[in-house]
């Protein structure tokens, strides 16, 4: 296997992020080669360490998944000594990333202007729920709160049911991807100008583009935008999750060519020219009958049979896979997106890697998620020149 490209291997990131949003952005950057040093609170570390943690383990699966390729030090940024040490580290850093509530870093005396004075080439990234300005600036935000505010819940769920959040943490991870993109652009800008800059990411902003389909439907005058697994406003049919003999499949055959192919697969070629179903508009109007006909057929086959039939006919179809099936998917394993590892803390587990591939090579983690403060001695001794006695004193005073 060729040596993987690591285009960011000359960059050092001080990572103050927690939970999902910020850690995913730095995860992506670490898999592109950046040195990522997590700066965590002494004693308990960032909040993500406690998620789904067994009593006998120092952290749970989410932390392990999002923090490979990273190092960890502990530092109390609420103490004068801790802030002074952090400023010294900033002088040797390229990027500082944080996803605290708006104004938190300023309140600790470590805001952008302060850190830029220490290092004019510093790229400072901040990710908040609702941004650094605007009437919602100080509202606390987690993924489902932003989903609610951004209209995601209003368009998710059955037509006659309540609004629902998505199962996946789409806001946090979309925010992480956007934050990573902003940082890559900032690196390019600094290379050209020599000066650092601020990158701001707002979770509320980042989710708005996902509404594109529904905004299109709204622009056409469609009003029934929450309709379960169907297309927005019922504009396309068949477009739904259909039961099979052993589970469910998602089928999308909205255009006339694919509908004609599907009619042939169902053994009902005459439906392609039936006035009730011959056009996109007719199928939309009669979508309940379309779903009844398709369901009667899909129930006679398994998920895999339908998946293979549809793929061969170039009709969009996906099996509804349960999470254990996804994490054992041979396609993801062959591509290297999933890897089976023997984690030194959590044991045998399947991890995901970065979706970004350079020269078609899958990303290979070079280290597992770090123990809290694992690099304290090395960083403080080798990078800042502190003696063993000074480091011990910092520990005793709970600075590190």
Enumerate the strands of the largest sheet in spatial order, edge to edge or round the barrel.
Answer: 3-2-1-4-5-6
Structural class: alpha/beta
Strand content: 5-15%
Task: Give average pLDDT, whole number.
Answer: 96
Low-confidence stretches: none
Number of helices: 17
Question: What is the general shape?
Answer: elongated
Largest sheet properties: 6 strands, parallel
Distance between the termini: 40 Å
N-to-C SSE string, H for helix and E for strand: EHEHEHEHHEHHEHHEEHHHHEHHEEHH
The number of strands is 11
Q: In percent, how helical is the residue content?
A: 25-40%
What is the CA-based Rg, rounded?
25 Å
Model description:
This protein is elongated. A hairpin with a 2-residue loop joins β7 and β8 (247-252). The chain has 400 residues and is α/β, with parallel strands linked by helices. It has helices at 21-31, 61-66, 80-90, 104-107, 112-118, 143-149, 170-193, 203-207, 212-219, 256-265, 280-285, 287-298, 303-312, 323-326, 330-335, 376-383, 388-396, and strands at 12-15, 35-40, 70-74, 95-98, 123-128, 198-202, 239-244, 247-252, 316-319, 338-343, 347-352. The chain has 17 helices and 11 strands. The mean pLDDT is 96.
